[in-house]
Amino acid sequence: MLSIFIPKESVESEQRVAATPETVKRYVKAGLQIAVEAGAGSGANISDEAYQNVGATITPQAEKGWSEADIVLKVAPPVTRVASQASEAALLKPDSVLIGFLAPYQNLDLARTLIANRVSAFAVELIPRITRAQSMDALSSQANIAGYKAVVLAASRLAKYFPQLMTAAGTVKPARVVVMGAGVAGLQAVATARRLGAVVEVSDIRPEVKEQVQSLGGKFIDLPVQESGSGEGGYAKEVSREFLQKQQETIANRVALADVVITTALVPGKKAPTLITEAMVKRMRSGSIIVDLAVEQGGNCELSKVDQEVVEHNVRIMGYSNLPSTLAEDASHLYARNLAAFVELLIKDGRLVVDLEDDVVRGSLLTHQGAAHHAPTAERLKGEQS
C-alpha cells in the first residue's frame, strides 16, 4: 500500500499544512496510507484528532515519516531541522515523490540533494496554467489569498476611509488605489479594493487583461509603447528596458496621487521588475501605503525590505513575503485540494506512476531518476560544473 506523509512545516512563519481532513479522507478512500506529523495542522486550526477521525496515523517521529513515505506533501521547500540538524530532503528514500513549493529557480542545493537521492520532485509553481490543471493550480489559489490580504492590510493601516461617504459633516472622498500587475493576485486586489469602495486603477504589461480589469470595476492604465509582456502559460515575460522606463513614466503621476499602491508583478525565474523608484516614492502623498507582493523576488518597489514594514519619505512600505500563511486555515484547505488533484494524476491502479507523456506531470517535474528534469535547473547545475 502506498504511503503519504504530511510533515509539520519547519519554518516558524509557515502556518499552512499540505493536507486537511477533507483531503486525507480522499486519500484513504483511494487506498493510501496516511501519516501526519503531530501538530502539523495546528497553525491552520486543525487538530491531530481531526486527522485521526478520517483514518490518518499521527506520528511524533518526523524523521521516520520522511524516510518511510512513498509520497511527501509539503508547503514550503524542505529545510534542515534545527533540533536534529537533519536535512529533510536527505531523509527521503530513493524513488520516492516530493510535492510542494520548491523554489526551483532559487534552490540549487535542494535540487542536488533530490538528485542524489533519486527523488521525483514536483514543484507546484511549475504546474502549467492549462484548463485541465486548474484544480491543481496552487500558485493561483495562494496568490488569490495574497491579493485579498494585501488590500485588507493596507485598509487597516491607512488613516482614511476606503469608500466615499456622504455625512452631515460633509463628503469623504474615496481612497485611490493603484494595482500593478493584473495576474491572479492583482485581480483579487482590484476586486477587494472595489468592494471596499475605493477608486482603482491598474497597470499591466499584458494588454489582454484590460477587459478583466474593467469587468471588476477597475480602470486600466494604457501604456504608450507597443510591446506586449505576455509570456507562455498566462505568465508575464521580461520586457525591454525602454518599455519598463515608459511604464514607470506613465504610472508615476497615478502613483503620486494614490493612497495605496499594491504591486504584484513577477516574471518566472527572473528578478521582479522595479516599477516604483525612490523618486516616485518621494512624490507620493504623506501617509500613503505600498504593499509589495513581489518582495521575495527582489521587489517591485526599490525601497521594499523582505518581511518588514518600513517608512520612507512618509510612505509606509509593506514587504511581507508570505501573506497566504496569515490566512492559514483557508489557504490550507485550498492548497490541500490542489495537491489532492495532483496526486490523483500519479496514482494508477494503486501504483505510483510518473507519466512523462502527461503535460502536467512533465511540466512540473523538477528532478527525476537522479537528474534535473527542469531545464533551467539542469542548465544552472551544468554551468556550475563547467
Layout of strands and helices, then pairs:
Blueprint: E1 3-6, H1 21-29, E2 33-37, H2 48-52, E3 57-59, H3 62-68, E4 71-73, E5 80-81, E6 86-87, H4 88-91, E7 97-100, H5 108-116, E8 120-123, H6 138-157, E9 165-167, E10 170-172, E11 176-180, H7 184-195, E12 199-203, H8 210-215, E13 219-220, H9 241-257, E14 260-263, H10 278-283, E15 289-292, E16 309-312, E17 315-318, H11 328-346, E18 347-348, E19 351-352, H12 359-364, E20 365-368, E21 371-372, H13 375-385
Parallel strand pairs: 1-2, 1-4, 2-3, 4-7, 7-8, 11-12, 11-14, 12-13, 14-15, 15-17
Antiparallel strand pairs: 5-6, 8-20, 9-10, 16-17, 18-19, 20-21
Helix pairs in contact: 1-11, 6-7, 6-11
